Amino acid sequence: MLSSNRLFYILFLIFLVLPAHQPCAQEQMELTVEDVATMVLNKNLSLKTESYKPGSAASDVLINEGAFDPSISLGVTNSYTKEPSSTSYDSSQSSTSTFSTSLSG
After folding, report:
1. Is there a smaller number of Cβ atoms within 10 Å at the N or the C end of the chain?
2. In terms of Cα–Cα distance, which of 82, 71, 78, 81 is closest to 99?
3. What is the pTM of this model?
4. What is the 3-state secondary structure (H, E, C) of the chain?
5. CB neighbours of 91 closer than 8 A, spacing ≥ 6?
C-alpha cells in the first residue's frame, strides 16, 4: 500500500508542477503580397536549387552577347604551277597570290 501512496503523491506533484493546458490565443499577422510571395519562394525547393546557378546564367549571357562582337578575318593564298612543254628547255610557269579580308559581326 505504501508504493501506491507514493505513486499517487508523485503523480499529484507532477500535475501541480505542470502548467494547465489552456488554448493560447493566436496572434494574427498582417502580410503583404510581397511577404507571402517571398515566403512561398523560400519554401519551394526547386526554385531554391535554381538560385544556386547564377554563374551558369551569367556565362550564357556572355556567350550570347559574343555573337554580336565584330570580327575581322585576313587570308593569303599562294599557288605556283609549272608545266613542262614538249621541248626540254621551254616550260610554262604561273604564280598566283590571293589576298582576302572580311569584317563581320
Report:
1. N
2. 78
3. 0.31
4. CHHHHHHHHHHHHHHHHCCCCCCCCCCCCCCCHHHHHHHHHHHCHHHHHHCCCHHHHHHHHHHHHHCCCCEEEEEEEEEEEEEECCCCCCEEEEEEEEEEEEEEC
5. 82, 83, 84, 85
Residue partners of 75: CB distance under 8 A and separation at least 6: 98, 99, 100, 101
In tens, the pLDDT along 68-98 reads 778 889 999 998 888 877 766 667 788 899 9
Q: What is the per-residue pLDDT for 21?
A: 57
